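R.M. (postdoc): so does anyone remember the format we settled on? I'll just put the structure tokens first.
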């Protein structure tokens, strides 16, 4: 029996013929890379997401060294007919050099993800923020096309760091999606990238939609994070691209900017809900993929899609987003990403 379609809106996953919910769930945190998360708690987050109508899980082979994929695989195996699209990522198991992105390594990485997820064919595999040279090399996409022909993957896409990388990869005719950071602190993709993706028929997943929690509105300049949390150890890009942590925004600046945005909200609408709804509303965005550490957060994320449905509420928040961005963030963001 096909799963019942929830009220959560769905949009086309590129040219695959499938659709995904406009709110997905990112599962980096389920690999325990943001602090300890038990498998029981992780499964509860996934269950709350599915129960709220979410049909997109985003993961990667390096999240918890495969733990996130394994948890998702066991969870979905117990729910036949679930209707969930699992988008995983590959490419960061080896040193980030273009010569490591070979057809042989692709097959090794993909076979490992297939085992982790317990499937013969991966729904969608995305290059995981690879070096630019990988995205510009036709051999990369020839290898991915052969993996589709072999039945190992059903579709492929790319997760990228910069707008220039995103625009470059859109030229690939077999591309299903691009994953890129978009949120009220990261507006550069709105100018050129999103219209180009829409013209190309390529789906866009907006990642880091709450700027690593800055757009939760709960942080102050005194907030601290555990040593195992990338919000402690990667603020200056010590471990991976700085943009992955707080969207590249200086923490103190981000706290102040979030407070300004919160002041533009109508009564009863939270900053994270407004941030997700605003991102979903951007033309060309297919889905946003916020993380969640608790079932309550997962349910709230799914419910956020409609939080700015009133035109006046959206207009006021959108104006605040652009004002704060122009005054506080534009120079740094445009210079780097």
């Amino acid at each position: 029996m096909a799963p019942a379609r929830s009220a959560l809106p769905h949009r086309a996953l590129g040219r695959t013929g499938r659709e995904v919910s406009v709110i997905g769930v990112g599962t980096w945190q389920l690999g325990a890379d943001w602090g300890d998360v038990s498998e029981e708690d992780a499964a509860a987050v996934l269950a709350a997401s599915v129960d709220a109508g979410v049909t997109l899980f985003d993961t990667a082979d390096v999240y918890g060294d495969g733990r996130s994929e394994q948890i998702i695989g066991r969870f979905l195996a117990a729910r036949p007919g679930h209707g969930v699209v699992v988008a995983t990522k590959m490419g960061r198991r080896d040193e980030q050099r273009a010569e490591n992105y070979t057809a042989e390594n692709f097959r090794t990485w993909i076979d490992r993800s297939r085992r982790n997820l317990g499937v013969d064919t991966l729904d969608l595999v995305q290059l995981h923020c690879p070096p630019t040279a990988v995205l510009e090399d036709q051999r990369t996409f020839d290898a991915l096309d052969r993996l589709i022909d072999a039945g190992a993957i059903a579709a492929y896409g790319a997760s990228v760091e910069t707008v220039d990388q995103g625009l470059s990869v859109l030229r690939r005719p077999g591309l299903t999606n691009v994953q890129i950071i978009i949120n009220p602190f990261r507006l550069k993709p709105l100018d050129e990238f999103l219209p180009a993706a829409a013209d190309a028929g390529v789906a866009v997943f907006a990642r880091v939609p709450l700027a690593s929690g800055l757009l939760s509105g709960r942080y102050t300049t005194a907030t601290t994070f555990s040593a195992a949390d990338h919000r402690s150890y990667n603020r200056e890009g010590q471990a991976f691209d700085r943009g992955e942590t707080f969207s590249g925004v200086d923490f103190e600046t981000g706290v102040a900017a979030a407070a300004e945005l919160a002041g533009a909200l109508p009564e009863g609408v939270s900053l994270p809900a407004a941030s997700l709804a605003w991102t979903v509303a951007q033309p060309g965005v297919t889905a946003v993929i916020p993380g969640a550490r608790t079932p309550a957060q997962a349910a709230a994320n799914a419910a956020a899609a409609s939080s700015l449905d009133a035109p006046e509420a959206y207009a006021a928040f959108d104006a605040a987003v652009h004002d704060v961005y122009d005054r506080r963030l534009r120079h740094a963001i445009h210079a780097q990403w």
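R.M.: ...and that's the designed sequence above, right after the tokens. Also worth knowing: The first strand starts at residue 10 and ends at 12. The CA atoms of residues 163 and 189 lie 6 Å apart.
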